[in-house]
Amino acid sequence: MNYARFLTAVSAARKPSPIRILTELQQRSPPSLISLAGGAPNPNTFPFQSASIKVKGGEALVMDEPLMKRALQYSGSYGIPELLSWMKDLQKSLHNPPTAGYSSERGQMEMCVTTGSQEGLCKIFEMLVNSGDNVLLDAPTYSGTLAALQPLGCNLINVASDQHGMIPADLRKILERWDPADAQKPGSSVPRVLYTIPNGGNPTGASMTCERKQEVYELARKYDFLIIEDDPYYFLQFQKPWAPTFLSMDVDSRVLRTDSFSKILSSGLRIGFITGPKPLVERVVLHIQASTMHTSTFTQLMVSQLLHNWGPGGFLKHIDGVIEFYRSQRNTMLSSADKWLKDVAEWHPPMAGMFLWIKLKGIKDTQQLIMERALEKEVLLVPGGVFNINSSDPCPYVRAAFSLSTPQQIDEVQHTFTDIFINLFYIMPANSIYRCILIN
Ligand SMILES: Cc1ncc(COP(=O)(O)O)c(C=O)c1O
């Protein structure tokens, strides 16, 4: 695959930092190596000495003095080797990517650690998206994606979706505007990037079926575009077996996948991963070299120690516990919704993630309902419009998260919210200002 044709001028111009190359080299060298090369500070001058972190139901993570010195020091831009190799093994065992055995020119599977998957996404977009480019996605979508993409000045093309995610027939219809043969031509307007959240979508809770992924992948082959698979809710799928991923189908090396530990280990530690064709992951790493240099070494060592103590079996056992929690929260959310909202709203039960996407009947836009009336009664949901490509477009949806609140709170919010809505919509006089704003 000709990866050069996908790169923005900014990304193509990135060159390796000579100092960073030495840091990578040093990271792989035996401890006997004496280096006067790097400009690293002397960790003996740092105030932190050692650490012991209690782990629920498991061995404590102990960072003795030598390890602590490493944790406090600069490290390589791809990520620390022991975390990377653990993650590569996990990725291979979960997705069996065809690209794992490819040569690097053919787009061999490569990985790097990012400071949350948000950093990975933002850098992927900067690598691939020029001003004026056509980018395919299924909106409503994660507002963090819109925040990263929109300033690039691209043209976001909305592919229709439902509770099973992006609809391939709509994608096909959109792509029929172009001749696939034009994709390779310089300056062609054929989209070069498609972005999607395949499991437990934020905000819609939608999960894409395997058949749809296969159809989308075939279209990507026909029109030669890359697929960005943003999958932070992969580990929060309520049903087993987990759905096959785009990465698992990627015979051409055209998928860039972002994973996140935010929903399963910690969101504050900021650990994410990019998995994709080596020539593209290398470009992202050049960007990391020039910006954050690397994700916190301390954080990576902490997570890596935990994962090595657990082993893949322990990791998956932990995930099972997390899924159990979210499944029960989802069920609470659904039974409260059935109890209170049945007559005034509709929704689809999410099969993954932490969100219920609720469509209120008979209302055009939920912004004012939430920001004024609901807040006044001390309940908060997200008005759906913020996830639209144009956030001022009216939207009858609200996003309700079932991650943090207790079952009682989930029930109370839906009860209060329903009361507010019914009062406004059904009881308030027809000429009331609020009613006019909300319904029209
Ligand atoms: C769809 C989606 N992508 C990416 C992210 C960013 O996650 P992280 O914490 O890994 O940066 C989020 C966070 O909520 C998300 O919902």
TrEMBL record:
It comes from Sinocyclocheilus anshuiensis. It catalyses: 2-oxohexanoate + L-kynurenine = L-2-aminohexanoate + kynurenate + H2O; 4-methylsulfanyl-2-oxobutanoate + L-kynurenine = kynurenate + L-methionine + H2O; L-kynurenine + 2-oxoglutarate = kynurenate + L-glutamate + H2O; L-tyrosine + glyoxylate = 3-(4-hydroxyphenyl)pyruvate + glycine. It is an enzyme of class 2 (transferase). GO terms for molecular function: 2-aminoadipate transaminase activity; glycine:2-oxoglutarate aminotransferase activity; kynurenine-glyoxylate transaminase activity; kynurenine-oxoglutarate transaminase activity; methionine-glyoxylate transaminase activity; pyridoxal phosphate binding. Pfam families: Aminotran_1_2. Its cofactor is pyridoxal 5'-phosphate. This is Kynurenine/alpha-aminoadipate aminotransferase, mitochondrial. Transaminase with broad substrate specificity. Has transaminase activity towards aminoadipate, kynurenine, methionine and glutamate. Shows activity also towards tryptophan, aspartate and hydroxykynurenine. Accepts a variety of oxo-acids as amino-group acceptors, with a preference for 2-oxoglutarate, 2-oxocaproic acid, phenylpyruvate and alpha-oxo-gamma-methiol butyric acid. Can also use glyoxylate as amino-group acceptor (in vitro). Residues 102-413 form the Aminotransferase class I/classII large domain. Keywords: Aminotransferase, Pyridoxal phosphate, Transferase.
